[in-house]
Every structure is written in C-alpha cells, then in structure tokens.
C-alpha cells in the first residue's frame, strides 16, 4: 500500500490543549445546535455527520499532515461522537451502562483489527490510508465512549461538574506519571489519555454552560463555543506557521 507522510500531529502540550478544547466544543456545540437553535438531536446529527464526512474525505485525500484540516475533522468528530451517545440515551432510551459497554467493545474491536492488520497501534506511523481509517474509527469511538462513560461516572457518583473535571484531570495526570516514571506502555498511555480527555472536556463544558441551580456557571453555549473555537483557530494557525512536524510522537504529553 502506498505510503504518505505521517498524517497526524506530533503529540505535544499544544496537541492536548487543542484536544481538550475540541472535546468541550463537542459538548457545547451539540447543545447549542440541538437546544438553542432548536434543531433537535436528529437534525443536528444529520448535519454534523454530513460535515464530518466531507471533512474526512479531504483529510483522507491529503498526502501529509495539514493542521487546519486535521483539527477540523477532530472538532466535527467530537460533536458527532457526542451526538451518537446522546441519541442512543435520550432518543432511544438505551442506558448509559449499555452504551458504555457498546462503545468500549467497539473500540476494542477496532484496536484488535488495527493491530492484526498493521502490527501496531502507534500514532507514530499513520502513513497509509488503511491505517488512517483505523485511526479515525478509533478516535470516533473514543469520543462516544468518553461521553457515555463520563456521564455514567458523573451521574453514578453524583460528583457535580467541578469534581468530575478534577477526577478526570487527575486520571490523565496519573496516566502521564505512570508513563513517565513507571514505564507504562506509550501507546496504552496515549489512548488512555485520549479517552479521558473527552469526559474532562465535557465536564468543563457543562461547568461553564449549565445553569447555576444545576451546579454550572450559566454562560451561554454560543459564547463558550465561540471562545473555544476561536482559541482552536488561533492555535492551529500558530501550528500552521511552524516548521512541519511530519512524525507524531507516541508520548502522551509533551516531552
């Protein structure tokens, strides 16, 4: 199969900052479109799925890592992953326990197929279309799993938004420390942190936008989505001006 330059960014501190903001946008933008604009979950899902497909086609056709294109796909896939979970729970009445099991199983299946075909789950060498398809499939299920598992843990423990954010932030920090000092496998550390950033971002989004009586700060979802999207655009613009890093690192955080 024809090889290309590595199609994903180096895993640096900026990578994780943008990723967390993208997950927050996934939560707030989905709420803004479905509730504030009254599109509903179904219509919002159709629209965002269509935009994701278009962006993903351009991403798969690209021969190298293009920051703006890559992060556009991440933002769209964040929203779609959130909507998949929300549709199953809110529209179809599937329990959070069931959706968590479904998405966890689906992610394991993707990883298993990926490893059997490619003998690696590393993001260091996303250099063929097949590997990139595995990569984006895994990303989609990490967002959906993070949404369901995050909601399940938050509701089951009744932590509230601030404590939920601290919990998931702490788990990410623990993953990094285990990688750095306890020789946790780099690939396992990366994907664990990637999954955990989804409920962290969702908790931050809910903390900022939910009404005070529900434990949030009551800021408009449109304002938060706008601020975070603007921040993402600025950071991606900065990355676009930097010398291209064609090889992604396996480290879960900046070296």
From TrEMBL:
Query: Can you say what this protein is called?
Result: Membrane-anchored protein
Query: Does this entry carry the keyword Membrane?
Result: yes
Q: Name one Pfam family in it.
A: DUF347
Keyword line: Membrane, Transmembrane, Transmembrane helix
* Record field: transmembrane: 38-58, 65-85, 91-113, 133-153, 159-179, 186-205, 217-239
